[in-house]
Amino acid sequence: MDYEKKFSQVAKTAKASIIRELLKVASDPEMISFGGGVPDPETFPREELGEIAAKIVKEEYKITLQYGPTEGDNELKKAYINLLKKHEGIEGVSPENMLVTVGSQEALQLIGLALLDEDSYCAVGKPVYLGAVSAFKQMFPKFLEIPLEDDGMNVDILEEKLNELVNKGEIDKFKFVYVVPTFQNPAGVSMPLEKRKKLINLAHKYDFLIIEDDPYGALRFEGEPIPSIYSLEPERTILLNTFSKILCPGLRIGIIIASTDLLRKFTIIKQGVDLCTPTLTQRLAARYLQAHDRIEQLKPTLELYKSKKDSMLNALEEEFGDMQGVSWTRPEGGLFIWLTFPEWVDTMEMFEEAKKNKVLYVPGEAFYVNEVEKNHMRLSFCLPSHEEIKEGIRRLRKVAESYVKMKSLSS
Amino acid sequence: MDYEKKFSQVAKTAKASIIRELLKVASDPEMISFGGGVPDPETFPREELGEIAAKIVKEEYKITLQYGPTEGDNELKKAYINLLKKHEGIEGVSPENMLVTVGSQEALQLIGLALLDEDSYCAVGKPVYLGAVSAFKQMFPKFLEIPLEDDGMNVDILEEKLNELVNKGEIDKFKFVYVVPTFQNPAGVSMPLEKRKKLINLAHKYDFLIIEDDPYGALRFEGEPIPSIYSLEPERTILLNTFSKILCPGLRIGIIIASTDLLRKFTIIKQGVDLCTPTLTQRLAARYLQAHDRIEQLKPTLELYKSKKDSMLNALEEEFGDMQGVSWTRPEGGLFIWLTFPEWVDTMEMFEEAKKNKVLYVPGEAFYVNEVEKNHMRLSFCLPSHEEIKEGIRRLRKVAESYVKMKSLSS
Fold first, then answer.
1. d(CA B61, nearest CA chain A) in Å
2. Interface with chain B: mutation pick from A4, A7, A8, A110, highest number of B CBs within 10 Å
3. CB A101 within 8 Å of CB A277
4. Which of A323, A356, B14, B90 has the fewest CB atoms within 10 Å around its CB?
5. Is there a contact between A278 and B115 if contact means CB atoms under 8 Å apart?
6. What confidence category does residue B411 fall into, taking pLDDT thresholds of 50, 70 and 90?
7. Contact at CB, A235 and B55, closer than 8 angstroms
8. Using CB atoms, which residue from A61, A135, A281 is nearest to B278?
9. Where in this chain does the record put each Aminotransferase class I/classII large domain (chains A, B) (predicted)?
């Protein structure tokens, strides 16, 4: 049978994640990978989680093995509200403001379903976390791509583009700005308080929502915390959190925090998406958070990440400090450094050479919607050891040199 | 902020599940509920699952607490392939034909996303499982509603409707027929082999896919098993299975079985939906299936369900046998009996009286897309005790009598 004829527009335009495809070679033991944004499994509290898992399956089976409410587990919500209060300074959140999702990815899909039509607009960073785009794209909206700077999205250019929509009479079709304001994926940069306030002012002026995706906020290892956009403007902000980076990704638990009117809509749509998030994994996270101060526990992990980040910055300075037109970001947290080459460099083209030299990164073009830039790469520092970081960046320098040579020979 | 202006078409048209809303009163301890299609938690193997959960979290943490492949856990797929071979007589399925989803509901959503556009057609039963419709509806297709008979969907009417599409020149926009051929939800009826073959012939003749949703197939307590549509026609059939009814719903594990070309597409789309199904719950189900013959274990549960079904049929005969124009289905498995009243009866209107008399059912109108029939109700027999079934049907007779009296007084 010719299935092609039966496929929808979504199916015809869906593309496999470049990252997943590229990183399939990462299993080679000699490969040093700066690719995935995957936390170190040795940081997962496996003993405690194992004990709790047995207990809640045996004793709370009427909850953990049964269907649950679409809204999510109230025990988990209450535990998370405490965490938000204590560590993020976010007050006034009630369980009715929260929906538990299958990771943040489902949250992104629900947002797309609830807010976007084919004639809608939304704004995203350039570069942007591609998981968000692949969720939003299912509704075929138009994307405004707003350049990212060392202090986050360029809000002046955002305003220019919004004004263009005003002039075209289409501003009422503009739904939201999507940002990862703290330790952005892929660039690692953060938006300072003043810029957050500017963004909020724009949200009022042009009447839009802000999607604040915050998977890395708790992974700060230096510098001062910046208030979340949600805490400054709860009415217009939809805050997305995840347990993937602070506890472990396997549970697939994300949390949407937003006004009750939005939440009710997301909940009704989620009924048609998967009825409910698994009850077992939710209760497991709930009982764990009730017994442990996870943010306190994370401190040694953050120390480790910080030292690895420093190792990578040092190695970059050493290997690329003398190479003209090469620059990189200096994140205060999160998992990623964004390395920029001169504009004529194509890091996807360079990727073959990197594989040969047993070092992996994610080519920057994976993080653009339409207006692709090819001269960047994302480097993750959380998994490789200090020695591997040093050696990997050395290999990368070699790769860059070979690439430069190849390009000058062919031109 | 006025959120209404920001909502998409999906959000504006999404409706809360009537079932979930109605059954909120079920927590009253005096209430006898024939409402939910929820399995008895005492049938969940909690001790074994608890032991396995602890072991796989502690020892297989690099898998169970980490991100997993979008395709699903290979251990689970292999265990399930064995189950399919042994108990369903389905051969030739490989892991590449399988995708593990967050319950069947996610499978239904992926099917909608992958196959339906706004100008597409699909056919569903009248009545139909509403979870399927709420997933498909997100893409705004046109529904052909095909009457359900005591032996499943009326395939002659299906063919008539397909011919109408041929005449309108729109048959190429017809994508699939959605059926629950064994112990249908809500009606409990099954489609015999001959009719399955007829449906397959139509699929060839009019070039469409068949979505075979089979949550209840393993819950047969009498009569001869009927080969699944997938086993007869794997190329054109997408088979949906779930662990919710045979193991427990809390794990939220569904499985799509289809040709590799379809599977690849579903997998790419799932990347944008939730990246992957939780790894912990998948491995838990896998290790359980490897150690236990779950279908063998289910036998006492099926004995229990059968006797409860018989209790309900006896009670219906006793209470409603003399009531003109009342009939009901006689399922050989599954969870539901479908009770039909004369056409002037409205079971939603009757619902208030039922609540007063402390008995609950699901009004039939919950199971129709556009052409609603109001004179049916769905009765689930798996959770209440024998005594409650007897007493509940007695109350229902009282409710029907009061309703008839009220209607004749008001007319």
1. 6
2. A8
3. yes
4. A356
5. no
6. low
7. no
8. A281
9. 59-396
- Helix H, strand E, coil C: the string for B320-341 is HCCCCCCEECCCCECCEEEEEC
Structure tokens at A147: 């350049």
3-state SS class at B180: coil
Strand partners, B211: B178, B238
Helical pair A386-410 and A299-320, crossing angle rounded to 10 deg = 30
**Residue A278: which of A50, A51, A76, A78 has the closest Cα?**
A76
Average pLDDT, chain A: 95
Distance from CA of B88 to the nearest CA of A (A): 25
Single-letter amino acid, residue B203: A
Which domains, from first to last, does chain B contain? 3-44+298-410 (3.90.1150.10), 46-296 (3.40.640.10)
Q: What is the ipTM of this complex?
A: 0.94
The torsion of the CA quartet B208, B210, B211, B213, rounded to 10 degrees, works out to 170
Q: What is the 3-state secondary structure (H, E, C) of A160-209?
A: HHHHHHHHCCCHHHEEEEEECCCCCCCCCCCCCHHHHHHHHHHHHHHCCE
Kindly report the backbone phi and psi dihedral angles of residue B259, in degrees, each rounded to the nearest multiple of 5, phi listed first. -65, 155
Is the CB of A57 less than 8 angstroms away from the CB of B38?
A: no
Report the helix count and the strand count for chain A, using DSSP H and E: 16, 14
Stretch B226-255: mean pLDDT, rounded?
Answer: 96
Burial class (CB in 10 A: 0-12, 13-18, 19+), B208: buried
Q: Which residue has 């139509």 as its token pair?
A: B202
Query: Residue A21: CB partners within 8 Å, gap ≥ 6?
Result: none
A66, A138, A252 member nearest B249 (Cβ): A66
Element (H, E) at B179: strand B174-179
Which is it for strands A253-257 and A237-242: parallel, antiparallel or unpaired?
A: antiparallel
